[in-house]
């Protein structure tokens, strides 16, 4: 589903290279964890996958279902099924949460040539998904992410993910700022979306989240490269021994 | 230098003076009113329209900008339109003539023409100062309007819409409105044009809030693309009076809306919110002065501007705090979203403080669309043009939402804004 080949990318503004020859393959149905120390390029990778214009790809390619997505803008990638759950969901005062959800769902449908949802159908879907994630209706009446607690913001991200039904989900540090109860709710939400035709990339600093979202593969990112790949035991190893050993071995 | 000889009248000045001369004997008024009109028009003739050399008009050189004034057409006809908020009581003034049918029971309404004829209007016709060009033009030429009183203790549920509709030509209207102690109401002063023909409109509202009155006053200006709109509201806030003044400019070619208020009773509070939606080649000026005359009064002002195309906008805001007006709390901000390289906005916030124990602040910013917010919307599959429109809308909708107690009003104002943005973005 996702193939990243020898990817090099830099910050557009100052030319700082962050991703330096990254290779990664994630198959449909797979949950891949990307782990790495601070500054290894984890968040940058998530932004590049979703098409943020602050970064430039200078070499290599990203294939999604066999096709390069480098020429697609962020909204096209989203409409094709790539979803980024933000580490820091953005507050937008003046945009009502429900309106945002409706526009996003219908714009994606339009892009794919599907009919727009009727209002009752939209409401039904939101109610159902919100209940699963224990999101109170009051929260949905507020402006987008405004006044949401850290946990509420993360749950709102997963709600969006559930409603938009993406094929490739990228979770950027979804566990940061969550207490254990919120973490379980979020993880349950993600696990509910696991399916043979959907891939999930979990970007995380700590192993904690991976106790709840158990990965099929684990990849260690360091200085913009994948320096080691393995199965879920690799995450436990990292938890026990830290990154230093693996970094040393790779050097 | 003798000003009287220095001025060579412009086409617009000539047209205004001619409009007066043509109506002599026909303009309503008793002796006092007529002589006041004479004085005002004489001043206009001798000193002309204000230029950039007059400080209050520095960013809106009326003499240069006002190229032409269409002649008054007494036969002009304008249809009334549906109220902004469904269920409002509508008092309409069409082409300058008030219609005082269907007056809600809780209001006392009288045609302003009557007050001109019996002379009771004379005192209110004076100008605010030498630079009060709007007061001068309006005082000279006003023919109609409404005098409205809300008695003490009366609470009016449904909004009252003062609907000032214009088709073409000229209209000069006046609205003295008084709210008795503890009165509560929402008034929508709505100016609109029914077509694209040229109009020249001046309108002055004179609003008094007695002790504890609680009023939401909306000024919604939706004139046509060729129209000149010169508006002014004067307000006086008594003890513990609360005014939420909300101005939306969403039309007109040359617009100046002035807001001049005094907080004259302790505990008085003003909330001013302004939205300027500017596009095309228009010039729009929002000028505000508030004088905190007594201690313990508060005010907060937020102006949001969205400027497209080659439009120009101006905000002048001046807060005066009198020497004994201690404990005044005033905050003013003006934020502008410039959406084209040729768009232009000038902001001039001013504080004049003579008291020493006050909390006053002001700020003016010019911003661009927030890229993080834009990316967030794009990352959810919303195409860029739509995402930008949502953010522009959000920038102004944010302050409309403060009127949350009245959902119908919020919805109506939001639909005015989104309709405007859809047409211009």
From TrEMBL, chain A:
It holds the Pfam family ABC_tran. The keyword Nucleotide-binding applies. It comes from the Bacteria. GO terms for molecular function: ATP binding; ATP hydrolysis activity. SMART domains: AAA. Transmembrane segments: none annotated. SUPFAM superfamilies: P-loop containing nucleoside triphosphate hydrolases. Keywords: ATP-binding, Nucleotide-binding. PROSITE patterns: ABC_TRANSPORTER_1, ABC_TRANSPORTER_2. InterPro entries: AAA+_ATPase (IPR003593), ABC_transporter-like_ATP-bd (IPR003439), ABC_transporter-like_CS (IPR017871), FeS-cluster_ATPase_SufC (IPR010230), P-loop_NTPase (IPR027417). Residues 2-248 form the ABC transporter domain. Belongs to the ABC transporter superfamily. Ycf16 family. This is ABC transporter ATP-binding protein. The gene is sufC.
Automatic annotation (TrEMBL), chain B:
It holds the Pfam family SUFBD_core. Residues 169-395 form the SUF system FeS cluster assembly SufBD core domain. GO terms for biological process: iron-sulfur cluster assembly. SUPFAM superfamilies: Stabilizer of iron transporter SufD (SSF101960). PANTHER family: PROTEIN ABCI7, CHLOROPLASTIC (PTHR43575). This is Fe-S cluster assembly protein SufD. The lineage of its organism: Bacteria, Pseudomonadati, Pseudomonadota, Alphaproteobacteria, Hyphomicrobiales. The gene is sufD.
